[in-house]
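Annotated sample (chain length 238).
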Amino acid sequence: MIENGWTESASAWIDVQGEDGDFGRRFVLDAPMMSRIRGRGFASALDVGCGEGRFCRMLAAEGIRTIGIDPTERLLCRAREKDPAGDYRDGRAERLEFADESFDLVVSYLTLVDIPDIHNALAEMVRVLKPGGTLLIANLNSFNTAGPPRGWMKDADGNPRFYIDNYLEERPEWYEWLGIRVRNWHRPLSLYMRILLGHGLQLRYFDEPAPYGGDPLKIERHRRVPHFLVMDWQKPAL
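Output written by the structure step:
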């Protein structure tokens, strides 16, 4: 197994997330993600890469029976501490230990970028989804992940610019912030689309959400360069 930094970064990650989540979750993604869930009658959900369990708790608050899986033991321990009644299991997206057609809803909330074998991972998510069910994805925007190692830099006039290069090249990059150092994968959006369409899924919703609060500097940068995307895919009913 290739090291990805999550075991070493788990404690720092927990601190950064706190009770309300980081900037991206709290002020960009939570609202559009929950808008795709509320009122749609989901009874069972799988949160793939649940981390410290924050989104599982949000799903449970909506009355959805939720299982969270993650390969990082420290994050699972924190999830169980915060939610003793929850169901949190050690597991990897590439090898889901569930029967076919087990869930109404499968969620990948900022986890696709952590997964080396994206083909098998998405195939597994589709496999465990019931016909008519939803695969709900929040991911780092491919325009953003094509930036490192340069990313935000000052141009010749001293103005901040975001530099993108090698967009079509699938590759891992290491990211470091606030004591966290993890490896994420850049992939062009077309790769994700080809895989999901290849499994016969139907795209029901797509957005590159803008922030709705928080630090003005972060808001400005998120509006200049799309940081995230949200996709809602439906598995055809039988």
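Annotation: The chain has a mean pLDDT of 96.
Annotation: Helices lie at 6-17, 23-35, 54-61, 73-82, 118-127, 142-145, 189-198, 216-224.
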